[in-house]
Design brief:
The chain is mostly helical. It folds into two domains: 31 residues; 53 residues, Recoverin, domain 1 (Orthogonal Bundle). The protein is built from five helices and two strands. The radius of gyration is 21 Å and the shape is rod-shaped. The N and C termini lie far apart (43 Å). Keywords: Signal.
Length: 91
């Protein structure tokens, strides 16, 4: 009888963890990406109102040269607003 209770407890814990992870992933997919203003607030370490390549991360870092249309080495609010939107996976 103790073995059955043990296996039931393990199964319950496993299902709970799977349920939490699934819910969390669904919530993240439903979120809107941050605005250009929010991106600058989050990443602008030196607070100069623009982002250098050292300050950015994620998809923006990968596409830095595409977004930096004036090729000055910084992303401005205007450049971020006009940046191509990242492609999202299918839901």
């Amino acid at each position: 009888m103790k073995k059955k209770s043990f296996y039931t407890a393990i199964a319950t814990v496993a299902l709970t963890i799977i349920s939490i992870q699934t819910t969390s992933a669904q919530e993240k997919r439903g979120q809107e990406p941050p605005s250009a203003t929010e991106l600058i607030k989050q990443m602008d370490a030196d607070e100069d109102g623009k982002l250098s390549e050292k300050e950015v991360k994620g998809p923006i870092k990968n596409d830095f040269s595409k977004i930096d249309t004036d090729e000055d080495g910084y992303l401005t609010l205007e450049e971020l607003k006009n940046a191509p939107k990242p492609k999202r996976g299918k839901k």
